[in-house]
Amino acid sequence: MRMLDILVLFYSRGGSVANLARQIGRGVDAVEGMRARLRTVPPVAAQTATALPPVPDSGVPYVEAADLHECAGLALGSPTRFGNMAAPMKHFWDGTGAEWASGSLVDKPAAVFTSTASMHGGQESTLISMQWPLLHHGMLIVGIPFTEKLLTHTRTGGTPYGASHVAGPDDVDRLSDEETRLARALGSRLARIAGKLAAE
Fold first, then answer.
1. What is the percentage of the chain residues whose pLDDT exceeds 70?
2. For all residues of the chain together, what is the average pLDDT?
3. I need a surface site. Which of 43, 79, 149, 186 has the fewest CB within 10 A?
4. Superfamily of domain 4-42+59-199
5. By 3-state DSSP, what share of the chain in percent is helix, strand and coil, each rounded to 5?
């Protein structure tokens, strides 16, 4: 059986978004015929005229154009920066004009996820802002439906717009049980939809 990849692309500083990415990946991997491909983006600096940052010796590799072309779906994650995605993620999407022109992401499903320091730190606006470039690329947005009962019970992260985590003032990267289960549910739903679309 041919395996289809779901690209789980994220930027993480404190570890929370990386933990969400891993749980979304577990949800993807739970769907037969699907596998998660975790990738990250390099940081950006105030002085952007410097050379590209070195590729890390270990950990998640940096995303390449081939990852976008080869994926059957995409999960996109970033911490919140004043109600928006972090600069490294925005910088990456600003450079995807060739993929936009070729339509390489058109009709592929996509989901988003984020982490904030506070319950009202801009989770939903960040999730929605990450959807904008995906819509311009012609992607199909996948959220978490309220048939996932945890959405009505969670006291931490989790929204219909995407998976989320509340790190708190101490920047705790450990996910709550609800956040973990909702992230996995989102990954599984994204993978199932990608599989159905690929079979058409």
1. 94
2. 92
3. 149
4. Flavodoxin domain (3.40.50.360)
5. 40, 20, 40
